[in-house]
Specification:
Blueprint (H helix, E strand, L loop, with lengths): L14 H14 L14 E3 L16 E3 L2 E3 L3 E3 L7 H17 L2 E3 L4 H6 L16 E6 H6 L2 H11 L3 E6 L1 H6 L10 H11 L4 E5 L6 H9 L4 E3 L8 H8 L2 H10 L6 H8 L5 E5 L5 H10 L3 E4 L1 H32 L5 H4 L4 E3 L12 H5 E3 L1
Parallel strand pairs: 4-5, 4-11, 5-6, 6-7, 7-8, 8-9, 9-10, 10-11, 12-13
Antiparallel strand pairs: 1-12, 2-3
Helix pairs in contact: 1-9, 1-13, 2-13, 9-10, 12-13
Amino acid sequence: MSTSRDPGASPPPAISGRKADHIDLCIDGDVGFRGKSNLLHAVELVHDALPELAVDEVDLTTPFAGRTLRAPLIIAAMTGGVDRAEAINRDLAAVAEELGIGFAFGSQRPLLTEGITAGYRVRDVAPSTLVLGNIGIVQARQAPTEALAEMVHESGADALCVHLNPAMEVIQPEGDDDFRGGLDTIARLVAELPCPVIVKETGCGLSRSVGQRVAALGVRQVDTSGAGGTSWVGVETRRAEHLRARLGETFWDWGIPTAASVAQLSGLGLEICATGGLSTGLDVARALALGARCGGIARAFLQAHARGGRRAVRDVARTVIAEIRTALLLTGSRTPADLARRPVVIAPPLAAWVPPDTPLARRMLRG
């Protein structure tokens, strides 16, 4: 693997220092996309003034990655591998357990490569929660399957997210430079790991081509992690110097918007988790209407925890779930699957991302 570095840059910090930087930047830093949205605002749900439903008849239960969620919501990947992550992740996981939603770890590279367990043990507070592990494709390529299986077991994860993050890595001061062998790595893990393998991005979205390639390998779940929310290129730009910082400024807004990524992946038989700039239940409902199975929210939960701990996280999650329920009611949808069959208005520029001859294309009303 190439290890070329900007010769003017300072030596990279330890991995735990990097994870601490990420927490601070994601809570308080100016690291959002600057000129690009997630395009969920281009999705208009069709109001049904005669829904013939009571609020308590709306059933939000949703299957994902072999488990059933009580609502189509996941507290998405954000942190781990540093002492501060211990309290954060345990509180987030405890809320997920209480409300029957999913929970995802941030990158587990510290656990895999250095045996750091901080933030990666939550099963005692979340015994029945869908817990998603997380490792980068480069680290997965380098690690034996047995080591990854042990990492999954150690953290009690139900599935392993393998994140694709070339844009983030080429800006990160201590990032990787060689992204060859990704498809072979995914194929190996699908064949050899005793749990589902979920392919995800880290803020730049998944295209239809990527969806087709991973589906052909047996992947059944994907996470868009699209553009429009936290820019992980932006996060790393704040940490970078010299050439990498200049590259980061140029590519800060790089990526496929979240709604466009969901649209691109439609009709491929994949269970899609829509993440990337979602902050409300209406955002989640819009993603469901495009064909996502569930939605993930990360930064809003991390910021809520910084404001008020577990109670604030619970309040945000309950509000989001109530918003999803209300959106279903107001579209006459008893279940999330019903919403995914309703007509939907898709305005430009999102309409241009919808593949022709797909179920989504046949449902859409162009605005």
